[in-house]
Each structure stands twice: as structure tokens, then as C-alpha cells.
């Protein structure tokens, strides 16, 4: 097995194991020993790639963002050049973030409480910056295809949407909140800004 394949397999096993443990026990109680025991990986194999569980948490946090980007670009490349099909990929991701049991939300809230750790602080910054960068990329892609209005300021709008999505995710961790503004409302709001004048921002 090539070194890169071994690396990818190890990372995949660490991430899958960690997500299972988070679902079972939450973020705070998990130890590297738990991850070793459940994954079947040795201490040496794990510490060859990471120094702490927080580094694995960062991988988990990043995973869906990158998957959404891949799905969005696939929808652009393989579908008709419309607004709705690529936007559907973003909608699905945002709606999943409203779930209080969502693993990535649990990880985000946990890491926000560890911001005094320089490694975590830098990871959070990079994650936020990446979120804004991809949102801007998606807007600019839509503008190039003529399905998002050119009057939209891609940079400011991407930052606003990222901020609103983070707020939605943080709210999901507050117990028993009665929210009037749902994830679906946010996606409709986003669609209306990007493609105004049509229902939910939809354009054939």
C-alpha cells in the first residue's frame, strides 16, 4: 500500500471512529485512549498524524464543508446551468446544521470553548476563512453562469451568509430554544438575495 493511501485510510478511520464516539458520548468525555480502543489503531499510528483529539475534531469540522463544495461544483458541472440545482446542495447542508444532534455542530461548539489553545484558535480562523472563501466562490460561479445577479457583492454577501449560518449552528446547541426563524427560512432568504424576483430565488 502506498504511503498516501495508508494516510488517507488512517485519517478516515480516525474520523469515523471519532464521530461515532461523539454521537455516543459528546465531545468532552472522549479521550485519545477511547479513540485508540474503538479504532483499533495503535498509539504510534495515531500520533504519527495528530497530537491531540482536537486535531481530529478539526478534520470532522472541515469534512462537510468540503463535501458541500464538491457537491456544489458537481451540480454546476453536470447539471443544467440553473440556480436551483447547485443551490440545493447548499440548502441541504444548512438544513442539516439546524439539527441539535449534528456532529459537526457539537464539534464547533466544543472547539469554540477551546479558543485559548493556539492550535484550535488557528484552526477555527482557517475554518471560518474557508467557509467565507467557498461561499464567495459559489456566488462568483453563479454570476459567471448568469444565474446570480451581478449586483451582489460576493465578498460581503459570503461573509454575511457565513455569519448567519454560524449563528444558526450555535443556536442549535442551546436547549429548548423556540425559534421563529428556521433553517429553511435562511435558505429562502439567501436565495432571494442571490436571485431576486423569483420564488425562493429559483430560476429555471
TrEMBL record:
Q: Which residues bind DNA?
A: 31-50
Highest taxon of source:
Bacteria
Instruction: Tell whether Nucleus is among the UniProt keywords.
Output: no
Name of the molecule in the record: AcrR family transcriptional regulator
Query: Membrane-spanning residues where?
Result: none
| Organism placement in taxonomy | Bacteria, Bacillati, Bacillota, Bacilli, Bacillales
Does Isomerase count among this protein's keywords? Answer: no
Q: Which UniProt keywords apply?
A: DNA-binding, Transcription, Transcription regulation
Query: PROSITE patterns given for it?
Result: HTH_TETR_2 (PS50977)
Q: Which residues form the HTH tetR-type domain?
A: 8-68
Amino acid at each position: 500500500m502506498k504511503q498516501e493511501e495508508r494516510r488517507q485510510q488512517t485519517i478516515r478511520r480516525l474520523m469515523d471512529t471519532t464521530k461515532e464516539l461523539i454521537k455516543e458520548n459528546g465531545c468532552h468525555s472522549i479521550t485519545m485512549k477511547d479513540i485508540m480502543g474503538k479504532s483499533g489503531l495503535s498509539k504510534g499510528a495515531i500520533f504519527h498524524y495528530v497530537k491531540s483529539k482536537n486535531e481530529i475534531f478539526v478534520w470532522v469540522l472541515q469534512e462537510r464543508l468540503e463535501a458541500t463544495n464538491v457537491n456544489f461544483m458537481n451540480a454546476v458541472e453536470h447539471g443544467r446551468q440553473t440556480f436551483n440545482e447547485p443551490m440545493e446542495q447548499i440548502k441541504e447542508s444548512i438544513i442539516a446544521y439546524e439539527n441539535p444532534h449534528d456532529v459537526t455542530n457539537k464539534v464547533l461548539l466544543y472547539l469554540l470553548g477551546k479558543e485559548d489553545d493556539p492550535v484550535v484558535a488557528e484552526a477555527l480562523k482557517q475554518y471560518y476563512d474557508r467557509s467565507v472563501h467557498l461561499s464567495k466562490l459559489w456566488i462568483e460561479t453563479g454570476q459567471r453562469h448568469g444565474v446570480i445577479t451581478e449586483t451582489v457583492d460576493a465578498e460581503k454577501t459570503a461573509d454575511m451568509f457565513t455569519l448567519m449560518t454560524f449563528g444558526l449552528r450555535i443556536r442549535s446547541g442551546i436547549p429548548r430554544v423556540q425559534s421563529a426563524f428556521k433553517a429553511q427560512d435562511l435558505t429562502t432568504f439567501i436565495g432571494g438575495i442571490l436571485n431576486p424576483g423569483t420564488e425562493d430565488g429559483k430560476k429555471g
